[in-house]
Amino acid sequence: MTAPPLLDAHLVADRGAFHLDVRLRIAAGEVVALLGPNGSGKTTALRILAGLHPLDAGHLTLDGVDLDRPERRTWTPPERRPVGVVFQDYLLFPHLTALDNVAFGPRRRGVDRRTARDRAQAWLDRVGLGGQARHKPRQLSGGQAQRVALARALAVEPTLLLLDEPLAALDARTRLDTRAELQRHLGDHPGATLLVTHDPLDALVLADRLVIVEYGRVVQEGDAATVTARPRTDYVARLVGLNLHRGRADGHTVTVGGLTLTAADRVHGDAFVAFPPAAVALHPTRPDGSPRNVWPASVAGVQRHGDNLRVQLDGPVAVTADVTPAAAAHLGLHTGQTVWAAVKAAETRAYPA
């Protein structure tokens, strides 16, 4: 028999014209990433879970206890929730040492001063900052401040750990090291963890499951392999680097607008068709031979993308193509130029919408 989730929440709230309606279920020991574009409701959801905004409807149940259920007029203030939070800017108390920052949470929950400081020292040792216990935030690097904030959140032994863009303020090198460190600590956390992020790499490395929100609603959820293989919105497709279109399928063909594409999969009815930019080949004239999907397109823009160039194409369908600088030079690519796009059927995936 499957154990009930540690977090069982239906978050319904209105913030002006914005309406949030999101269901979240997180098991003990599970890390869930909440992903979405700016304004999608990620931060609102996190603030509701932390007790900084009340629900207008729905419920928030943690380990079988209702923390917020408007229909029963139940609401638990932040300081009484078994929740730890790591904010994007860490929000360490500037006048307190690292030790006292970490001890603050246990002290607020009634732990005596000596026990709280002992617990704080143990957590600083665990995150590799035992020697910086007497340092104040201004004396810490960005990566060290992030680890103090994590230790402070975990020192209250939270049933639910909330992480709000925990790596966003770090430079690339520090982020790489801190991500690996964070992954280790999250693996040891026995409670539920919600990671709010816009960075797909953070989500893919740190989370067991992804929940994608747009316009205040869940549009897709699942493990990383499922979400990346079968995106269901343009945002998710861009996130994982795929061209995505919705059309009507009949067997191995999917009609999108005025273009019919042949796919490797057999589907009937409303369907998505997806293929990576690297699968799109560009030709100066209509190609002969193996490609099953060929159409004329107009170059709308060219940008550097890693070692290659990413070409935006308009036409029967708008797509992006990745080409090498040598190929771009050979084609003489420029905005407004007409080219032929080709994608092999074997590299085109279709699945039900």
From TrEMBL:
InterPro entries according to UniProt: AAA+_ATPase, ABC_SmlMolc_Importer, ABC_transporter-like_ATP-bd, ABC_transporter-like_CS, ABC_transpr_FbpC, Mo/tungstate-bd_C_term_dom, Mop_domain, P-loop_NTPase
GO cellular component annotations of the record: membrane
GO terms of biological process kind: molybdate ion transport
Limits of the Mop domain: 288-352
Keyword Cell membrane applies: yes
Keyword entries, A-Z: ATP-binding, Cell membrane, Ion transport, Iron, Iron transport, Membrane, Molybdenum, Nucleotide-binding, Transport
One of the record's GO molecular function terms: ABC-type ferric iron transporter activity
Annotated signal sequence range: none
UniProt domain ABC transporter: residue ranges: 4-240
SUPFAM superfamilies xrefs: MOP-like, P-loop containing nucleoside triphosphate hydrolases
Superkingdom in the source lineage: Bacteria
Keyword Signal: no
Gene3D superfamilies: 2.40.50.100, P-loop containing nucleotide triphosphate hydrolases
Pfam families per record: ABC_tran, TOBE
Protein name: Molybdate transport system ATP-binding protein
Source organism of the structure: Micromonospora eburnea
